[in-house]
């Protein structure tokens, strides 16, 4: 135990002044959630996996706050072998056990090595055994004396467990390990008990359901105290994770619906506006200090702890005395703990979509005045308040075009135009003020190697779709793959639209599909226009936000056209100086720029082979009659092309977009 305690002390000494001391160091977590699937088959991953197996106790779980990727000496490995039989400090707190199980699942998927599957199933058995009859889980199992025995929502401990069980029982594909049918039945029972516990612990304030405490007594289910500064209270942070879990349950019971709606009402009621927390540098001590300042434009905040009786935010030092202003507690706790959160904003963003799907009373009231001409308005003056509601109401495979007029407003929702919603048109009131936005990204969804394709803010799968005067955003920031618009449909047209994102802003899918973007604005960082469809970009502004690649075409073999940019203006943010016109996502990629103005940020060589020499022979990258400081045909890579006037003549709208209909002539 001396060795293990030394590991914990070493970790705590480095993590003491992190923004939120109870949160697991992000480096180990990032390895699990951000690495590509192929990495898990590497020797580096296998070396880390050996550490993970060493740290796992015979009971099935892991201690917390261990940086599994750090190399171990022979002596350290020997000490860990001796600790195998110990049950001390085995926990699900700070993501422990659930995150190691996810890592092992990815290792098993990449290598098919049975030892990873066996370790995963041992962890699963640990989780099932640790559950109370009431449905909750303690922070440590076997039970550790003190507040650790309480049912623990703190730091999403119980939510992490239930999300794991849900993915396994629903076979979502997140986990490569498939438990036996007998185990699946146990998981289903365990999950149901867990949800029942959540419903029973939702706190009633003067007879009205609100949200949850970070801890609840394992016997009475009442709000409970943890550490001295973690007093019984309503939680703005942990409650958000609970509601998001409940929203993911298909065909929810009336009790679950009531729990969600009650929590949303409470979140709206207690949100704090006009303030934000910032860090200032104390000139005397040279230390950072967290303060609260006024800012009318700040995003809403929620307090971590609020009074059970009246929702009043409070703070506490290690003496356990309540204070009602952050600056009233000492420096260490003020700066070493997360007292505010924005997490409930994710609930409020998703709620309209969930409500449209599951609130039957709302659906019964909502029907458009005209079946083929609907109005969406956030203020309730239209047929629907959300875009998705209008899509749900649209006829399948209609005989005439369905027009959805969208009034100005910021629509925080994931929008899905289904394959049966053909001939749908979105017409925004104005491009500048009609905005669809969401913030999904690869590691947030964490659905496996293809998570990118689930991140889109707007997903179009219905053929003959049209959008005009609309802005579509993925606001997740520079966090990896995050799609704003995904078009997996044929004969689609976008005019005067703006697409904002970072990596992978626009995905144009569908072998043989034809898509047309006219007078649009598209911005991003890495490969922000990618896919296999034939796409004409006409008169568009293509803005690079970082030194990277504009396009990553995956044109199928034998397809005549890939990406064609005509009369476009390629611009860049300040300090962006090295951008490639494209690189081949697949070997037969085709991308052509005609009559375009290329800014000085375009690299002289123009194109990149993505470390694929074969692509130099089989891809087709070309330019014709372009202008601007970035147009340097004499410096381009030898395997690219400069079209002749005769070559360029075939790149007409009719040739590029032709299909079995003359769809492009009536736009």
What does this molecule look like?
- The protein has 3 domains: 1-200, Glycosyltransferase (Alpha/alpha barrel), CATH 1.50.10; 202-365, Glycosyltransferase; 386-666, Single-stranded right-handed beta-helix, Pectin lyase-like (Pectate Lyase C-like, 3 Solenoid), CATH 2.160.20.
- The model is unreliable at 1-26 (pLDDT under 50).
- Helix 5 runs antiparallel to helix 6, helix 7 (157-170) runs antiparallel to helix 8 and helix 9 (238-247) packs antiparallel against helix 10 (254-270).
- It has 18 helices and 38 strands.
- The radius of gyration is 27 Å and the shape is globular.
- The strands form 9 sheets. Strands 13-14-17-20-23-26-29-32-35-37-38 form an 11-stranded parallel beta sheet. The chain has an 8-stranded parallel beta sheet with strand order 15-18-21-24-27-30-33-36, with no helix packed on it. Strands 16-19-22-25-28-31-34 form a 7-stranded parallel beta sheet.
- 43% of the residues are buried.
- The chain starts with a helix and ends in a 10-residue tail after the last helix.
- With 667 residues, the protein is an alpha/beta fold.
- The longest helix is centred in the N-terminal third of the chain and has 21 residues, at 181-201.
- Helix content is 29%, strand content 20%.
In terms of topology, how is this protein built?
Layout: H1 2-15, H2 26-34, H3 43-55, H4 74-83, H5 98-111, H6 114-130, E1 151-152, H7 157-170, H8 181-201, E2 204-205, E3 208-209, E4 215-216, E5 234-235, H9 238-247, H10 254-270, E6 275-281, E7 288-294, E8 302-303, E9 305-306, E10 315-316, E11 322-323, H11 331-335, E12 340-341, H12 344-358, H13 360-365, E13 373-376, H14 387-393, E14 402-406, E15 409-412, E16 415-417, E17 424-428, E18 434-438, H15 442-445, E19 458-460, E20 466-468, E21 471-474, E22 485-487, E23 492-495, E24 498-500, E25 506-508, E26 514-518, E27 521-524, E28 529-531, E29 534-538, E30 541-544, E31 549-553, E32 563-566, E33 569-572, E34 580-582, E35 590-594, E36 597-598, H16 613-618, E37 620-624, E38 641-642, H17 645-648, H18 653-657
Parallel strand pairs: 13-14, 14-17, 15-18, 16-19, 17-20, 18-21, 19-22, 20-23, 21-24, 22-25, 23-26, 24-27, 25-28, 26-29, 27-30, 28-31, 29-32, 30-33, 31-34, 32-35, 33-36, 35-37, 37-38
Antiparallel strand pairs: 1-4, 2-3, 5-9, 6-7, 8-12, 10-11
Helix pairs in contact: 3-5, 5-6, 7-8, 9-10, 9-12, 10-12
GO molecular function: pectate lyase activity
Signal peptide: 1-21
EC number: 3.1.1.11
